[in-house]
TrEMBL record:
TM region(s), chain numbering: 20-43, 166-187
Official protein name in the record: KCMB2 protein
InterPro entries hit by this protein: K_chnl_Ca-activ_BK_bsu
Transmembrane helix listed as a keyword: yes
GO cellular component assignments: voltage-gated potassium channel complex
Record's keyword terms, sorted: Glycoprotein, Ion channel, Ion transport, Membrane, Transmembrane, Transmembrane helix, Transport
Pfam family, one: CaKB
Family per record: Belongs to the KCNMB (TC 8.A.14.1) family. KCNMB1 subfamily.
Upper taxonomic lineage: Eukaryota, Metazoa, Chordata, Craniata, Vertebrata
Principal localisation: membrane
Location in the cell: Membrane
Annotated membrane topology: Multi-pass membrane protein
Length: 200
């Protein structure tokens, strides 16, 4: 009687462990799919792939501009902010180009190097842009990215999804997938050993 209870408990434990392993594998596959349709396209479509050193030529704050109204956006999304324009010299090619914060900045407003998030306090936005401009004037040289193919005649300060960030994004689903597969393999080995012992 006790033996039957132990076997039943063992089977329940194996079933739960197997479900856990399969669940981990399924979740990791969903994470792979989500990363594949969101982060990977941004990484592969970015043309600013080569790192070089940028030297600041000038950093000026122009009059206030309005955040461009994209298709389908509402009027409340438009807000004025000082336009910071940073021009740099690329040491790799010697070109004088305009610097943008990220790839997204160029899409939001190609006239400005930095596009702030929408904030109700305009003084805070102005103070932040002035600090950024003074930092550019203070640190004259820094690493940046440019397009070696020449399709984009500008540079960006940092990529939205660098290679390290992409590898880090794939790290967690990989660990989950490996853990799930390991649990399934251990359950199958346990079942095989149990059957072998019963047969003997």
């Amino acid at each position: 009687m006790l033996g039957k209870k132990l076997v039943t408990a063992q089977k329940r434990g194996e079933t739960r462990a197997l479900c856990l392993g399969l669940g981990m594998v399924a979740c990791s596959m969903m994470m792979y799919f989500f990363i594949g349709i969101t982060i990977v396209p941004f990484y592969t479509n970015s043309v600013w792939t080569t790192e070089t050193v940028c030297k600041v030529l000038k950093a000026n704050i122009k009059d206030k501009v309005f955040c461009p109204n994209s298709e389908g956006s509402e009027d409340e999304e438009i807000f004025p902010y000082p336009c910071l324009q940073v021009w740099v010299n690329l040491t790799a090619s010697g070109q004088e180009v305009m610097l943008y914060q990220t790839e997204d900045t160029l899409e939001k407003n190609p006239k400005c190097s930095y596009v702030p998030d929408k904030l109700e306090n305009s003084k805070e936005v102005k103070a932040r842009i002035e600090i950024i401009a003074s930092n550019f004037k203070k640190y004259q040289t820094f690493p940046c990215y440019y397009d070696p193919g020449g399709t984009q005649t500008n540079a960006i300060l940092s990529r939205l999804y660098p290679s390290k960030g992409l590898l880090f994004a794939f790290l967690w689903p990989t660990l989950m997938f490996t853990g799930g597969c390991l649990i399934i393999v251990l359950v199958k080995i346990s079942q095989y050993v149990s059957v072998l012992s019963a047969w003997q």
